[in-house]
Each structure stands twice: as C-alpha cells, then as structure tokens.
Design goal:
- There is one protein chain.
- With 172 residues, this protein is an alpha+beta fold.
- It has a single domain, classed as Aminopeptidase (3-Layer(aba) Sandwich).
- Helices cover 33% and strands 31% of the residues.
- It is built from five helices and eight strands, in the order ββαααβββαβαββ.
- Strands 1-2-3-4-5 form a five-stranded antiparallel sheet, with helices on both faces. It has a three-stranded antiparallel sheet with strand order 6-8-7.
- β1 and β2 form a beta hairpin.
- α1 packs across α3.
- The longest helix has 18 residues.
Length: 172
C-alpha cells in the first residue's frame, strides 16, 4: 500500500522505521502530547502495527517527504477495540510543524479510510491542550463528540462522518 499526495508518500510503518520513531518520540514537543517511547516500547508498537496490517489490512503509515524521502512522522488508521472505532491519527517531527503536512496526511488517510473500511465515521483522539492537533482535526472537518480516556490519557474524541455516497437525483 502506498498513498501519494502532492508532497507526501504514505506507506506502512514497519520495524525498519524504529530509529526514526524513537528519535521523534524523544523530542520534548512530541513527548508533551504523545508520550515517550523507549526503544523496546517503540519496537513492540511497530511489531503490533505490522500484525494489524496483516490482520486488518490497515494500520499506521510513515509520512515521507516525496522530494527527499525524509521521515516526517506517522499517520494512518488505528482500530481501537475498546471503542469499536477507527482513528485517523498524526504525529510529526516538530521541525516540520506548520507546513500543512499533518493536514495533508490526515486528509489522505480519511479518504483511504472511507474507501477501504465500512465505517460510519472516523475519529481522532486528541489530548485537550494539543491545540495544533485540534487545528488539524478542525481543518479536516472533524467535530468533538465526547471526552474519553485512551491509554490512561484524557482525550477529546473528534469525528467526521462518512461522506454521502448519493449520486445525482433522477425524476420519475
């Protein structure tokens, strides 16, 4: 699976991305809203993601800059069984914040999710003070639907419904 946008390539996140994921999750700006992953925890999460790809046909993706191939972050689709919901998420390296990459990746993942999955809506679970991610969710047309707890963190759950599939109306 490969998704191409104007500036990005999105491909399954694998254990080969371990160094980039560990480096990103050691950055203080990322730790503040996403938490830190040591190498063992990051490897376990990447292995779990590879299993989810094999079992569900979707999962997290690496966000790569098309022009250079540079790792910018991660996005993708994550099924949360405790909510019976699929989330579109995004985490980027702080040095590439403010360039619209999260919105571009999130939009591509929303499109992919609604094309690939039979779900009525997709979510984004965001810690309440993560104003940047709230801005991305808002730009994507998502609205807050509830407060919840994910991995021991309080989150606000944003959601967007499946786009209408109705075609042109015909007269009888």
């Amino acid at each position: 699976m490969l998704i191409e946008t104007d500036r990005l390539l999105l491909r399954p996140l694998t254990t080969a991305d371990l160094d980039d994921v560990v480096e990103m999750h050691a950055m203080p700006e990322v730790v503040r809203t996403m938490g830190a992953y040591d190498r063992a925890a990051a490897l376990a999460r990447l292995e779990r993601n590879e299993r989810e790809w094999a079992e569900r046909g979707h999962g997290l993706v690496a966000i790569l800059e098309r022009a250079s191939g540079r790792f910018l972050g991660r996005s993708g689709l994550k099924y949360w069984p405790q909510f019976d919901e699929t989330e579109v998420g995004w985490v980027l390296r702080p040095d590439v914040w403010g360039h619209g990459f999260a919105t571009e990746a999130g939009r591509a993942c929303l499109h992919w999710g609604f094309e690939a999955l039979d779900v009525p809506y997709l979510t984004a679970m965001i810690v309440p003070d993560n104003e940047r991610s709230i801005g991305v969710a808002t730009r994507l047309g998502m609205q807050p639907i509830r407060s919840d707890v994910l991995m021991e963190l309080p989150v606000v759950v944003y959601a967007i419904g499946r786009p209408s599939r109705s075609g042109p109306r015909t007269r009888s």
